Amino acid sequence: MSENEVYTVAQHQKKKSRRGFFITLLALVTLISFVLGVGIGRATSDPEIIYRNDSSLANFDAVLKILTTKFYYGEGTEEYKNKLIEDAIKGMVNAQGDIHTEYMTPEELEGFNGSLQSTFVGIGIRYNELDGKIFVIETLYSSPAEKAGILPGDYIIAVDGVKAEEEGVDVLVSMIPGEIGSTVTVTVQRGSDTFDVPVSRGLIESTVYSTTKEGVGVVTVTSFGTGTADELKNHLERIKSAGINDLIIDLRDNGGGYAATLDQMCTYFMDNGQIVMIEEDRDGKEIIDKVEKSKKFDFRNIVILIDEGSASCSEVFTMALKENCNAKTVGTTTYGKGVAQLTKTFSDGSALKYTDVIWKSGKGVYIGGKGIEPDYEVRLHEALYLPQFTPEEGEEYAYDSVSYMVSNAQYILDFLGYDVDRTDGYFSEATAKAVAKYQQDHGFEVTSTLNEQTCLGLNSSVIYDWNMKRDVYDTQMQKALEIVKQ
To answer: What is the Cα–Cα distance from 476 to 434, expressed in whole angstroms?
Structure first.
């Protein structure tokens, strides 16, 4: 069987996000269970022997044959047999207890690789599914969506007239990509208003964007994808051409990506021979990854923004720049993914992504399970760490009730500037007044209760305000600007 290998420091499944609203991709895990039951049965004096050999796979072969030829609920089709084998492989892999090791079908591998593509044709939004709608988390800088006026916090409820409530979010998402220059019409729900927005699809460079703040270059890197290093180089050239010598690199919520991209990005900051990381395999053998063909940009001061969503390549990159460029870090402790994966692709298009090494920094620091503690710990408003929330249909919370949903609402109302007297989940009189004021300000029916529409509105408002008033709310960025200019 031919195999193609792709070496990655793979993206992890984020257990947290600085904005708990951000899209979380969950891997599907298939479990095989054998259940023994008591009922009507037949027994023979001698058990049937399917195979007689000494192979360690004999029992597997026997079970597979029974399930495909004799099992009452089984099928004799090739599709059913392949599904059994696929489930068995996944069960074996999942039983190892390493969340970073997984077997992927051809379709799952395509999705995984797609998540690390740096360019694609679309409209340029980051989204999540909420209450059967596409919830816009962010519009990418200079994207078709931004130019068309789509805003963070908007709900997309239909695409080209196809409604999410009828066909589902997955169908709508599949309709958004298309040919460059073609138009897609999205139906947007914003507060109590609903309207159509035509958007011209374009090529999205999705992993790096930059700006300047108070004479400081700020580069945001969202993943270590296939073209990220080239994107980053273009942004750094633009920043240096403007005569800027101080840099902030925002790696918050960056879950990693390809090791080759990591190595190339390090050449922009480090000298030849400096160590990116040290890898150690199961036999204790060390491989030292050093910078080659340096294309270094000289920056006077570098500050890196990190959080619990910064993982894998983000952590390697951060440690490399801390140890070799005297970079300072601001934010919260990173994820702590001190392992790397090798992806083996098989001839049928499936693949096994498995942990083959741990990594340490050039100075021997291992951050697995611990993460990187920031030099300056700064936490954002608690509302930005909350998950999206909405009551069950018809359910609502009123004065004197208690719920975590009330607590979530209280944090968000406080974030939005409404007067609340507590955040412990008790629906107080002050909370009722704050809810009523919010409902009035946003065109909802004033009920003074937390109902489905009000909760959806609060989810939208916190994302909108975070993106549109970030200079006010981003205390981590404020601290980074203070440090980099010292």
So the answer is: 28
What's the Cα-to-Cα distance from 367 to each of 49, 252, 277, 314, rounded to whole Å? 52, 17, 12, 12
User: Residue 183 pairs with which residues in a beta bridge?
Assistant: 200
Give the residue extent of every domain in the chain.
Answer: 119-204, 207-379, 388-471
In whole angstroms, give the CA distance from residue 10 to residue 117: 13
Q: What is the pLDDT of residues 20-49, one digit of tens each?
A: 433 322 222 222 222 223 334 433 334 444
* Contact in structure between 189 and 456 (CB atoms under 8 Å): no
The answer to whether the beta carbons of residues 459 and 388 sit under 8 Å apart is yes
Residue 141: which of 237, 210, 224 has the closest Cα? 210
Distance, CA of 14 to CA of 20 (rounded, Å): 10
CATH classification number, 207-379, choose in 1.10.1740.10, 3.20.20.30, 3.90.226.10, 2.60.120.10: 3.90.226.10
Task: Give pLDDT tens digits for 315-363.
Answer: 999 999 999 999 999 999 999 999 999 989 999 899 999 999 999 999 9
Number of Cβ within a 10 Å radius of residue 173: 16
Encode pLDDT of 210-221 as tens digits: 889 999 999 999
- Tokens 């059967």 belong to 132
DSSP secondary structure letter of residue 397: B
* Assigned CATH for 388-471: 1.10.101.10
Radius of gyration in angstroms for the set of CA atoms belonging to the chain, rounded to a whole number = 26
The C-alpha torsion from 477 through 480 and 485 to 486, rounded to 10°, is 140
Q: How far is CA 225 from CA 221, 256, 433, in A?
A: 10, 8, 47
For residues 105 and 350, the answer to whether their CB atoms sit within 8 Å is yes
Identify the CA nearest to 279 among candidates 294, 262, 296.
262
* Contact (CB, 8 A) for 210 and 219: yes
Residue 354: name the closest of 12, 102, 107 by CA: 102
- Tell me the three state secondary structure of residue 411: helix
Please, how many CA atoms are within 13 Å of residue 245, restricted to the half-sphere of its CB? Answer: 3
pTM metric for this prediction? 0.77
Per-position b or e across 225-261, b if 16+ CB within 10 A of its CB: bbbbbebbbebbeebeeeebebbbbbbbbbbbbbbeb
- Under CATH, domain 119-204 is a member of which superfamily? PDZ domain (2.30.42.10)
Tell me the residue ranges of DSSP E strands in 164-300.
Answer: 183-190, 193-200, 202-205, 208-213, 216-221, 246-250, 257-258, 275-280, 286-290
DSSP structure string for 339-370: EEEEEEEPTTS-EEEEEEEEEE-TT----TTT
Residue 17 has pLDDT above 80, yes or no: no
Three-class DSSP category at 217 = strand
What is the structure's pLDDT at 54? 55
